[in-house]
Specification:
The chain is of the alpha/beta class and 101 residues long. The chain has a single domain, classed as STAS domain (Transcription Regulator spoIIAA, 2-Layer Sandwich), CATH 3.30.750.24. Helix content is 40%, strand content 22%. It contains 4 helices and 4 strands. The protein has a 4-stranded mixed sheet. Strand 3, helix 2 and strand 4 form a beta-alpha-beta unit. Helix 1 packs parallel to helix 2.
Length: 101
């Protein structure tokens, strides 16, 4: 994450460069820190993220969970197509149900 800018009740995170195993934990820690300080909404601008590995996607799921546990919305504008698809998947939005075998 390159920078986080508080804008009223919103923390806007501008990400740049790959979101991968080398920096995914830092994203989660940064967002959780903002939530602990009372910021009720998180916006992640990922327009400058050229690459994301499984650790990056896992970090986004952790961010999503942390934000929604606070009862707050999250937004990922200008995110890569794979992230938009993941952010609306039933597993991420909490509507998935276990399948019976």
């Amino acid at each position: 994450m390159s920078s986080v800018t508080p804008q009223g009740a919103v923390d806007v995170g501008q990400l740049s460069g790959p979101l991968d195993h080398e920096n995914a934990d830092r994203l989660v820690e940064t967002v959780q820190s903002g939530l602990a300080e009372g910021q009720p909404m998180v916006v992640l601008d990922m327009s400058d993220v050229p690459l994301m590995d499984s650790a990056g996607l896992d970090a986004l799921m952790d961010v999503h969970d942390a934000v929604h546990l606070k009862g707050a919305p999250s937004s990922w504008p200008r995110s890569p197509n794979c992230v938009r698809k993941c952010s609306t998947s039933p597993a991420l939005v909490g509507t998935s149900k276990p399948t019976k075998k």
